[in-house]
Specification:
The complex is a heterodimer of chains A (316) and B (536). By secondary structure, chain A is α+β, with helices and mostly antiparallel strands. Chain A has helices at 12-45, 64-93, 199-216, 222-232, 271-279, 302-314, and strands spanning 100-107, 110-114, 120-122, 124-128, 133-139, 144-148, 153-157, 163-167, 173-178, 191-197, 258-260, 266-268. By secondary structure, chain B is an all-alpha fold. Chain B has one domain (2-10, 23-508): Cytochrome C Oxidase, Chain A. The chains are: A alpha+beta (316), B mainly alpha (536).
Chain lengths: 316, 536
């Protein structure tokens, strides 16, 4: 089950997909060598040797038995592949009892994660190892994709619809999530991580997550925490902190400068402006940039916003 | 008919290229000139589309956005796809080579409706002018225009829709013209089963064009209505359904891949027997498999949508149907290979490209089951595996078939011979460059790299660099080939009327053909593949 493909399968189901992949590769490989072998062998063997006698080829115009066989055999082979592919797929789609549910909403260009108990996160999904997980997928603006290559599964996220995806992670670790349905300028930056935790660690994390924001992190400097928040919230998908321009305005050296706005006015980038731009990005749009940034009003607690602003102030 | 014969006699000995001046081209009713205009136009778009591809490959040298912004990259891949599909690969063989050679193959003086034919060309021109006009706000939606992004995008989607609507109209009229031509204009004695296989494939192609294209026309009208009038067909914010758009779009765009590949299969069916000096193997099987592909091609569209939330049952039905398109395709491949058996094979450039078609198309075909099978489709959908698969079938297949046709018929169309040595150098570069460029995409796709990514994870860089190097070799090969065409056209040796000793009717007239094609309408007594002489 492991490492059949150039990268390891992260679940038993993924291993079955890999087995199907190998089966098709073997069958395809057989027909590849058969057909290409005959093509090259005939081309070499029957190349013209005597120009004066090249009309003396046999008048073969067909062979009903061969035609019958090469209709019948490929038909049977594709039936086998179809059936196997369908079986494995059906297993992938069967709802599994007792699954941990996670709501994931696609929004240009990030994944908004919400756990049933109300906790939220951006671009980071934590699930326990060894238990089935059900992702409940939606999108708020355009189509997005939810692709986990290590689990060999993907599902589109469709505005106005709910789609679902099941998997059962067998090994702890960090797994990449890609957006696979083209969704505009930031499509290739729409990435997330699935973090599979050993059950005990997960329980611990799930239990204490509520307190973490308050006292657990007291000794960490606020700007360091802010940096982590900015990173985890997906800000850097659209904003650069190295002076370059991405989809949104550059953030380095922003604090304290005069920012030109869309309506011709300008504003000084103080703490209040930075805070407002995170919580209500459409209120003051920087001149020359599209008004596409989504609000963090619900997904980022005020405490985190303040820490993020503190971090932005250190980018000189 | 006597009057026609008299006019034909008067025009005898005047090559179709002899008349000069732009009016003689712009208002021509000669199918050969219209075909030549299509060939020039589509080749220009092929080169522009290729230039966009090179810009994409350049950007993909580095994982981070380097030369272009993400938006610019998205515009480039949209224009690469849209131009290659709508302005090159759909019209190039049917409207270009098809226009030129269908009447010649039939032993006719022209297509059934010459004026309609000219109108098709000018509608096509109007279409691409509108598309060029849409570049004021260039498209960044991908060539599939998926809603609701395309309903919301700031790009000139409405203008572009109109352009594609016109291109589609031109395509329908051409298809209609060819169907009537093949039914009604066959020379005396040319029964259906004496027709060259190129005609069978063009017939199947034309049927798809006439039936499928209106659907895409209507789809783009709906999209325009949504954008301009605010009617909610596809945008859920207005009460529409984005997946409905995908069904409409693929109901056209899947059958149309057979509009792209069938004519190329027709060319290969012509070239292989000529250069093997043997009758085509399994004429009926090849002819009827074209019709089978055209029919089955209408029943598989939703295999582009296995992850769009359709019910598992619908997915299973479409997966099942998809596998059965593979069978008539495999039948063709087996018959071509069997034609080589005990032949007397020579490797002039048309044959090299025809064999390359078979070689690359087998790779494209055998990677199809990975995408047809549901479980592996869910893994590979929207990754580079798909990009590699359709480039092997569309470029490795259709474009190689197109190149085979261009080299095969160059002496007939221009009256000049090509430099064979240069043609082989170009072929070798194209063959090597193509495989280096696209085979690596299979690997990076299996490793999980999604398509349409301006920036990618650094772990995918090695494959991308190799692919870009391959694309440079491929581009060089294509430039050498184009240079060879221009040189051949300007100062190639004079071509005899039948340089390849082929038996189909176009070789029984002068090179280049006279305005009226034939001095006398030929009497057909046999099929065009009677090459072998000895008993089997």
């Amino acid at each position: 089950m492991d490492n059949v493909l150039p990268f390891g399968a992260a679940s038993a189901q993924a291993g079955r997909v890999d087995a199907l992949f190998v089966l098709i590769t073997v069958i395809g490989g057989f027909f590849f060598f058969l057909t290409q072998g005959m093509l090259i062998y005939f081309a070499v063997k029957y190349r013209r040797r005597r120009p004066d006698r090249d009309n003396e080829t046999p008048a073969i115009t067909g062979n009903p038995l061969l035609e019958f066989l090469w209709i019948l055999i490929p038909s049977l082979v594709v039936l086998v592949i179809f059936y196997y592919g369908w079986r494995v797929y059906t297993d992938l789609r069967i709802p599994q009892a007792g699954a941990t549910e996670v709501y994931v909403n696609g929004r240009s260009w990030m994944y908004e994660v919400r756990y049933p108990d109300g906790r939220t996160a951006i671009n980071e999904i934590r699930v326990p190892q060894g238990k089935p997980v059900k992702f409940i997928l939606s999108a708020s603006d355009v189509l997005h994709g939810f692709y986990l290559p290590d689990f060999r599964v993907k599902m589109d996220m469709i505005p106005g619809r709910i789609t679902t995806l099941w998997l059962q992670p067998d090994r702890p670790g960090q797994y990449q999530i890609f957006c696979t349905v083209y969704c505009g300028t930031g499509h290739s930056n729409m990435l997330a991580q699935l973090i599979v935790m050993p059950p005990r660690e997960y329980a611990e994390w799930a239990g204490k997550r509520g307190r973490e924001e308050g006292e657990g992190k007291e000794r960490e400097p606020v700007a360091v925490r802010g940096e982590r928040i900015v990173k985890n919230a997906g800000c850097l998908n659209c904003h650069a902190v190295d002076g370059k321009e991405k989809i949104g305005p550059n953030l380095r050296g922003l604090y304290g400068t005069k920012v030109p706005l869309e309506e011709g006015k300008s504003v000084t980038a103080d703490e209040e402006y930075l805070r407002e731009s995170i919580v209500e990005p459409g209120a003051k749009v920087v001149k020359g940039y599209p008004n596409v940034m989504p609000t963090y009003k619900t997904s980022m607690p005020p405490d985190d916003v303040n820490a993020a602003v503190e971090y932005l102030k250190t980018l000189k | 008919m006597e009057g026609v014969e008299r006019i034909a006699a008067e025009r005898n000995g005047r090559g179709y290229l002899s008349e000069r001046g732009w009016r003689s081209w712009a208002f021509t009713l000669d199918h050969k000139r219209i075909g030549a205009m299509y060939l020039w136009t589509t080749t220009v778009f092929f080169l522009i589309g290729g230039l966009f591809a090179m810009l994409l490959r350049l950007e993909l040298l580095s994982p981070q956005a380097h030369y272009f912004s993400n938006h610019a990259y998205n515009v480039f891949f949209t224009l690469h796809g849209a131009m290659m599909i709508f302005l090159f690969i759909i019209p190039a063989i049917p409207s270009g080579l098809g226009n030129f050679f269908i009447p010649l193959h039939l032993g006719a003086r022209d297509v059934a409706f010459p004026r309609l034919n000219l109108a098709s060309y000018w509608i096509f021109v109007a279409g691409f002018l509108v598309i060029i006009g849409s570049l004021v706000a260039p498209m960044d939606t991908g060539w599939t225009f998926y809603t609701p992004y395309s309903a919301k995008s700031a790009a000139a989607v409405t203008t572009l829709s109109l352009g594609i609507f016109l291109i589609g109209m031109s395509s329908i009229l051409t298809g209609l013209n060819f169907i009537v031509t093949i039914h009604k204009m066959r020379a005396p004695g040319m029964t259906w089963h004496r027709m060259p296989l190129f005609l069978w494939s063009m017939y199947a192609t034309s049927i798809i064009q006439v039936i499928a294209t209106p659907v895409v026309g209507v789809t783009f009208l709906l999209l325009a209505a949504e954008r301009v009038l605010g009617v909610g067909f596809f945008d859920p914010a207005k009460g529409g359904d984005p997946v409905l758009f995908q069904h409409f779009f693929w109901f056209y765009s899947h059958p149309v891949v057979y509009v792209m590949i069938l004519p190329a299969m027709g060319i290969v069916s012509e070239v292989i027997p000529v250069f093997s000096r043997k009758p085509i193997f399994g004429y009926n099987a090849i002819a009827y498999s074209s019709l089978a592909i055209a029919f089955l091609g209408f029943l598989v569209w939703a295999h582009h949508m296995f992850t769009s939330g359709m019910s598992p049952l619908a997915n299973a039905i479409f997966s099942f149907m998809t596998f059965f398109v593979a069978v008539p395709t495999a039948v063709k491949v087996f018959n071509w290979i069997a034609t080589l058996y005990r032949g007397s094979i020579t490797f002039e450039s048309p044959m090299l490209y025809a064999l390359t078609f078979i070689f690359l198309f087998i790779v494209g075909g055998l990677t199809g089951p990975f995408l047809g099978a549901l479980a592996t489709n869910v893994q590979l959908h929207d990754t580079y595996f798909v990009v590699a698969h359709f480039h092997y079938t569309m470029m490795g297949g259709t474009v190689m078939g197109f190149f085979a046709g261009l080299h095969y018929w160059f002496p007939k169309m221009t009256g000049k011979m090509l430099n064979e040595k240069v043609a082989r150098v170009a072929w070798a570069l194209i063959f090597v460059g193509f495989n280096v460029t696209f085979f690596t995409m299979f690997i990076v796709g299996v490793r999980g790299m999604p398509r349409r990514y301006a920036e990618y994870l650094p772990k995918f860089q090695v494959e991308n660099v190799i692919s870009t190097i391959g694309s440079a070799v491929l581009a060089l090969g294509i430039l050498v080939m184009c240079w060879n065409f221009l040189q051949g056209f300007r100062k190639g040796a004079k071509a005899p009327s039948n340089p390849w000793r082929a038996l189909s009717l176009e070789w029984k007239t002068a090179s280049p053909p006279d305005v009226e094609n034939f001095h006398e309408i030929p009497q057909v007594t046999d099929w065009p593949y009677g090459y072998g002489t000895t008993k089997a």
